[in-house]
């Protein structure tokens, strides 16, 4: 199953808007990067929000731990080295904002979907697997010198 | 002006408070849901409310209804800040008594404009 372009376009727009407005950071698509998060990141953060309704699936943000701390610090107005327990909640809020903006944008073209609460996973040796009959695409971005991957997963109805 | 910020996400409360500081409002109180917001209003001198919609225990819409039903608080300006952007959501919030509505994500300028409109509107 291919990813419908309307989903790709709206996820990319939503992600850029959230980072610009709520985090004060510009992100740029970076298709030259590997098309999925690298295995050499060490500690990896995955913040996801699922959606259901007219379409069902999941939006997930993948970063290294350092990048997650940079994002949390920028969002909360503190230095990244001083970010500690705030990071999971901050990354969950970023996922919530991106998924919420994505849903709002899609609702201008089709019946709205509902979004769930965020889930944040932090670890150094894990992989995410999903059921069959899903389309799964990673969108590589750069925030300065740091890599961010937005993942969109769409279940076949 | 003392502003009560009601949101179940401590991260979002901090973002809103940082935003308020940036635009010149440094006096604030916090609550993590509508029920706590009602308690805070009973014990604190609040001049304006900024509230989320989706919260446990008491939602933002139910909180606004409680604010409007109380003679001591019914005059307070209320701004809702939420990801709920559907037209029917906005109508429901306005029916409950919200003065202004902000869809996340937002900029400091948007919050400043909505506060000014709520004060003067």
Q: Strands across the major sheet of chain B, in which order?
A: 2-1-3-4-5
Work out the count of structural domains of chain B: 1
**Biggest β-sheet strands, sense, barrel of chain A:** 7 strands, antiparallel
Low-confidence stretches of chain B: none
Distance between the termini of chain B: 16 Å
Mind explaining what this structure looks like?
The complex is a heterodimer of chains A (157) and B (121). Chain A is of the alpha+beta class and 157 residues long. Chain A is 33% helix and 31% strand. Chain A is built from 3 helices and 7 strands. Chain A has helices spanning 5-23, 65-76, 86-106; strands at 28-29, 44-53, 57-64, 113-115, 119-123, 134-143, 146-155. In chain A, helix 1 (5-23) crosses helix 3 (86-106) and helix 2 crosses helix 3. The mean pLDDT of chain A is 91. Chain B is α/β, with parallel strands linked by helices. Chain B contains 5 helices and 5 strands, in the order βαβαβαβαβα. Chain B has helices at 10-22, 34-43, 60-69, 87-96, 108-120, and strands at 3-6, 28-31, 48-51, 78-82, 100-103. Chain B has a 5-stranded parallel beta sheet with strand order 2-1-3-4-5, sandwiched between helices. In chain B, strand 1 (3-6), helix 1 (10-22) and strand 2 (28-31) form a beta-alpha-beta unit. The longest helix of chain B is centred in the N-terminal third of the chain and has 13 residues, at 10-22. Chain B starts with a strand and ends with a helix. The mean pLDDT of chain B is 95. The interface between A and B is medium-sized, with 21 and 15 residues.
